[in-house]
Task: structure prediction
Amino acid sequence: MKVASKLLAGWFLALLCMRTAAAHAPDTTGTNVVRQELVQAILSTGTEQQKLLNELADSGSKLASDVLGAWTMEEVYQYVAPDGSTVPVMLESQQDAQGRSRAVRIDDGQFLKDASGKELRFGESDLNAANTNLRLRRAIQHVLDMLALTDPDPDARAEAVNKLGNSQNESYVPLLQSRLAKEKNAYVRKAINEAIAMLQLGDTNPAVQIAAVEQLAALNSIGSLDNLNQLAANTNNGPQLSKAIQHAIDSISNHIWWVNFYGTIFHGISLGAVLLLVALGLAITFGLMGIINMAHGEMIAVGAYTTYVIQNLFGSGFGFNITLPFSFLGKPIAFGLNLPGLNATGWFYQSYFLFAIPLSFLMAALAGLVLERAVIQFLYRRPLESLLATWGVSLALQQIFRMVFGANNVQVNSPNWLLGHFTLNDVSFDYNRIFVIGFAILIVIGTWLLLSKTPLGLLIRAVSQNRPMASCMGVRTGRVNMLTFAFGSGLAGLAGAFLSQIGNVGPSLGQTYIVDSFMTVVVGGVGNIIGTVYSALGIGTADQVLQQLTGSPVTGKIVVLICIILFLQWKPGGLFAVRSRSLD
Amino acid sequence: MAQDTIKVGVLHSLSGTMAISETSLRDMLLFAFDQINAAGGINVGGKSYQIQPVVVDGASNWPLFAEKAKELLEEDKVAVVFGCWTSVSRKSVLPVFEKDNGLLFYPVQFEGEEQSENVVYTAEAVNQQATPAVDYLLDQGVKKFYLLGTDYVYPRTTNLILYKYLLLHGVPPEDIGGGFTKDDSGNVISAGKYVPFGYTDFQQIVADIKQFAASGDACVVNTINGDSNVPFFKEIVAAGLTPDQCPIVSFSLAEDELRSIPTRNLVGELGCWSYFMSLKTPENKDFLSKWNAWLQTENYPGVVKEHRVVDSPMELSYDGVYLWKEAVEKAGTFDVDAVRKVLDSGDISFQGPGGKITVQPDQYTTKNVYIGTTLANGQFEIVKQFPQVVGQPWMLKSLDAQLAAQGK
Result:
């Protein structure tokens, strides 16, 4: 959002300024030509605009690709000068107190000044953005793609090549072949080969067509399937061509089946990891300690909101004001908090999430500790009352979230390093999903180490197995209970920190996950952490497989729930029932 | 000078899940009433009446909407009601309005396929939002359409209409993504992919869209309602689908909703409404400055003053008040039958912030339709305008007839 666009604009500005400095050197007439072409392209329309854009495509200029990129982001503005002429400008990233910033002229890279030489300042809404529509965006994107063919980043090159391949314009073949001769990166080479073959499908010579079809089959090109189907529908294909097309379609369809297969398994594991994260805390507070903890979801929300606050502290700061709806001794009760932000930028801002993770754990653990001391410690022998009490706490916490953060959802921006994905043989792996899987593994290992290898873990196990006996042996059960509950709540907070990256953060966040959490813990077997791991992965994978098979997320979910009901009829204790001699 | 007053009902959810959206409409209506009262009220039969709003809370509870409507019409005897957001709340109050012969102005985009003489539909019908968006995309060279929505009546009906509309415009069924449900005789009864309210796991749907869009000429028609849009767009960004590869046009995301969505993920995606706050007409600038001034001075309880935006449902609520005023003054009475007769004449129109809006004889409205691309600040840059689109109540039937005529 705002911050990112500012970052981007700042970067453009730095670039423009560099160009400005360079503009005084004698060898930059090329840059000036590009600047004039850019200005004309922005101000013209129709075929003339198209012609200018094509000229820019041949320029190979970094400046052109930056300005055109800003244009598609609606960050190129048109300033109408007092004499009626229109000057295309971009806004500087640094804003003054009124949210206005200086404008950089695209034609010479200087700041825009009025007649008296004073620098003009604008807010985003003071100026009209240069016009774009989908067709123009695509034309600009095409120019950017042509410029990107020589980009140092292989991904950018491959994407540009893909788009040329989809253009159905065979005149690009020589261009691509000349790129192929220079290209060394295997991934980009594959993309270029695929693009050439796609373009050659439209050739008039059947031999070229057959070679292209066979090439596409060998490359397992998913993007070409539509074109192949279209070609197959063509009735005047020769028998050899028809056979080659059929073979290619079968081979690619088979490839898609495998892509979906591996994709589904990956999605299942990542959904399982999310379930595991949200349920692990409950596996401790409900599973080990036996508290029917309805406030577990709100502990997740505490973690998510902590991430939000940390994000804002790295940005422009965080503050709130509350006026309670009743008064005390005739005075309204109001309190508030204002924390200044660090206004961090760049990698430092992007790293806010790394700070948010431990703080989410701490905040949720602290909230759990207070909850345990204030309410739950009186209810250890009365599970049904603990249900009611924690439910009440959950409602109260939701209301507090509403008062502090507002009833609307709040915006949490993912750091750039969590956005994006990599592709392996057409199966796409999102970074945030890989992150959650790794994160879940680390937390499970950490929990296991804590419970089985530390003195505290020994005490926790002793107290959860037999509280009176542990107490007789001199264990301070109250203290152990407090720490266990805080630890379980802290784990919920960690889950919240991650969920803020893939979903909504709002007052009712907890309600979304409480049912899933209980389901996972009960299916896994109450009181057994490893059971929760198996059940989370099992439910996650089953959900994704059924969604793939039935083609509908609703039906998939219903079938999973029916299976769980049947499973619990068969094994009421869950996957790993804890056998004990106790009579409860 | 003692002035007469006329009671007017406001029926919106001020609590519960819909309160976030509907409270804004209540605020806008109060603004419109204050504006009219300050300008001398409503002139009927030579007398001037001050509007006295009766605000009731539907509490996001559909049966309660019917009870509250009954209260407004039978006890408070209001002359007109402005209200409802969800289609289900409208369906719930409809029998009450028909029995008591009340008049309801309904302002929120909906699926059509309904026409009651007790309702004035200032809202966008399907052909004032969904089909213009599709026209625009077809015009821009998009060939494949992936239909995705939340599982309830509005998305299902809209997508079925779009499916038929696309067939009619030469898009073959295999280029319409999301899957189909067919009845026993093989007729398509539902098209598109549906998720429940509050759904969060879009991995597989986005993977599906990615394969669908691999050929580079596809778009997504998004009728997901509510906060499921956030995980959906986050997944889209993570999967690297940009608006240039696969544009997404959303029908339930207006400026008010964009306040709680990380808009960075949406820059360049499309929206289609009959009003955008970024419209640069003098009427709109004037309207926004008066609205902001009113926000600073009003002292109604519960009206939030900071970070307010205006979007299409709010603007259409405002237009509705002025259309009703115009009709009442022309009829010279508050009597519903007489007012309806004037409304149905087709002469009642209002130059609103979004352009001219006219009540049609079928009580739908003719108005401008705009297509905009989302900006990072949560506003829209308008890229296309369809002037004065006539609202069509019965799209399904007319599309079926046209398809049959083409032998499809």
Q: What stands out?
A: Chain B has a mean pLDDT of 90. Residues 4-124+279-367 of chain B form a domain with the Rossmann fold fold (CATH 3.40.50.2300). Chain B touches chain A through 60 residues (CB under 8 Å).
